[in-house]
Amino acid sequence: MQFTNRRKIVRTFTGQFEDYSKYKEPLSNDFHHRCAYCDTLDNIITTPFEVDHFIPRKIFKDVRDDLDCDYTNLIYCCKKCNIAKSSKFSGDISVANPTNEMFYDPTEQDYNDIFYRNEYGIIVSEDPKGKNMISELRLYRPLHALAWLVGQTNDTISALEHRIEATTDVEQKEKLNSALNKLYKYYHKLNNIFISNYNEKNDLLASINR
Ligand SMILES: [Zn+2]
User: Which long-range CB contacts under 8 A does 134-140 form with residues at least 24 apart?
Assistant: First the structure.
């Protein structure tokens, strides 16, 4: 299964702020409201998403302070991924256009070419750097598979809602509506499990290692 069905990430925002956190809203639009690393949708989580510095602050501090509010260095991601990524870096900060070679830049690299999902929805990769990213960002956690399942259910609900809207047959509409109601209930339960596990610091799903 493919890693994500999100559209390509394109940086369309051209404004400038002196506080990097102010870029969160334009980032959320450009990143299609998903964590750039694990693909979790921001609207299914109660923990606010964060702004990650692709080249970490600790690395560029006093050397390239311009990167603090450089939009091209900012990534929209969930708290779990931001914590896992922290100051991890490899590369040369002294070159003209430095990058963080430890990770694939989600705006440059299509993650579907690097990652995929196994039958349980767990994020996997055959690519050496991709494998390393899974380990460094802890993308192997079942929590991310659960987020994916919630996202898939969300997509199915949207598709069903559109179909119901387009259906004129009354009987057919009723059947579809009853299916939709079941799906809402399932989504609600699944989402609650996901949120309670995401919010817990030492949750079971997050702590299981490979
Ligand atoms: Zn994430």
Answer: 136/84, 136/85, 136/88, 136/102, 136/103, 137/37, 137/38, 137/81, 137/84, 137/85, 137/103, 138/80, 138/84, 138/206, 139/37, 139/38, 139/81, 139/115, 140/209, 140/210
pLDDT tens sequence across 161-187: 999 999 999 999 999 999 999 999 999
Distance 36 CA to ligand 1 centre (A): 7
Which CA distances in Å does 50 have to 78, 96, 110, 115?
A: 6, 27, 21, 22
Q: From 101, 79, 76, select the one nearest 88 (Cα to Cα).
A: 101
pTM attached to this predicted model: 0.88
Cα of 37 vs centre of ligand 1, distance in Å, is 5
Cα 202 to ligand 1 centre (Å):
16
202 in the same domain as 108:
no
Q: Which of 99, 116, 140 is the last residue of a domain?
A: 140
Non-local CB neighbours of 169 within 8 Å, separated by 6+ positions: none
Check whether residue 121 and residue 168 sit in a common domain.
no
- Mark which of 112, 140, 168 sits at the end of a domain: 140
At 81-117, the pLDDT tens digits run 999 999 999 999 999 999 999 999 999 999 999 999 9
